[in-house]
Amino acid sequence: MVVRVNSQKIRDLLAASGWRQWYLAYKAGLSTGHLSNVLKNGRASEPTVCALAAALRVDVTEISAEAIE
What we know:
434 Repressor (Amino-terminal Domain), alpha+beta
Protein backbone atom coordinates (compact mmCIF):
# COMPACT_ATOMS: atom_id res chain seq x y z
CA MET A 1 0.00 0.00 0.00
CA VAL A 2 1.21 3.48 -0.84
CA VAL A 3 0.69 6.22 1.72
CA ARG A 4 0.69 9.97 1.24
CA VAL A 5 3.21 11.50 3.64
CA ASN A 6 3.50 15.00 5.02
CA SER A 7 6.91 15.90 3.62
CA GLN A 8 6.99 19.26 5.38
CA LYS A 9 6.32 17.62 8.75
CA ILE A 10 9.18 15.18 8.13
CA ARG A 11 11.47 18.08 7.21
CA ASP A 12 10.38 19.97 10.34
CA LEU A 13 11.07 16.95 12.54
CA LEU A 14 14.40 16.47 10.81
CA ALA A 15 15.37 20.09 11.47
CA ALA A 16 14.23 19.88 15.10
CA SER A 17 16.36 16.78 15.64
CA GLY A 18 19.44 18.49 14.20
CA TRP A 19 19.96 15.54 11.85
CA ARG A 20 20.80 15.70 8.19
CA GLN A 21 18.87 13.75 5.58
CA TRP A 22 21.60 11.14 5.21
CA TYR A 23 21.45 10.39 8.94
CA LEU A 24 17.66 9.99 8.93
CA ALA A 25 17.99 7.68 5.93
CA TYR A 26 20.61 5.66 7.82
CA LYS A 27 18.49 5.48 11.00
CA ALA A 28 15.44 4.38 8.97
CA GLY A 29 17.40 1.84 6.93
CA LEU A 30 16.79 3.66 3.66
CA SER A 31 19.07 4.93 0.96
CA THR A 32 19.50 8.68 0.72
CA GLY A 33 17.96 8.56 -2.76
CA HIS A 34 14.89 6.76 -1.47
CA LEU A 35 14.40 9.32 1.31
CA SER A 36 14.87 12.14 -1.16
CA ASN A 37 12.18 10.64 -3.42
CA VAL A 38 9.77 10.27 -0.50
CA LEU A 39 10.24 13.90 0.48
CA LYS A 40 9.95 15.09 -3.12
CA ASN A 41 6.92 12.99 -4.12
CA GLY A 42 5.12 12.90 -0.78
CA ARG A 43 4.42 9.18 -1.15
CA ALA A 44 5.91 6.07 0.38
CA SER A 45 5.15 2.45 1.10
CA GLU A 46 3.77 1.49 4.51
CA PRO A 47 7.07 -0.09 5.64
CA THR A 48 8.97 3.05 4.65
CA VAL A 49 6.58 5.30 6.56
CA CYS A 50 6.84 3.03 9.61
CA ALA A 51 10.65 3.07 9.41
CA LEU A 52 10.72 6.86 9.16
CA ALA A 53 8.32 7.26 12.07
CA ALA A 54 10.38 4.89 14.21
CA ALA A 55 13.62 6.70 13.36
CA LEU A 56 12.03 10.06 14.18
CA ARG A 57 10.40 8.60 17.31
CA VAL A 58 6.91 9.74 16.36
CA ASP A 59 3.64 7.96 15.71
CA VAL A 60 3.03 7.01 12.09
CA THR A 61 -0.06 9.23 12.03
CA GLU A 62 2.14 12.31 12.57
CA ILE A 63 3.86 11.93 9.22
CA SER A 64 1.24 10.14 7.11
CA ALA A 65 -1.81 11.70 5.57
CA GLU A 66 -3.83 8.96 3.89
CA ALA A 67 -3.64 5.71 1.99
CA ILE A 68 -3.49 6.10 -1.78
CA GLU A 69 -3.62 2.50 -3.00
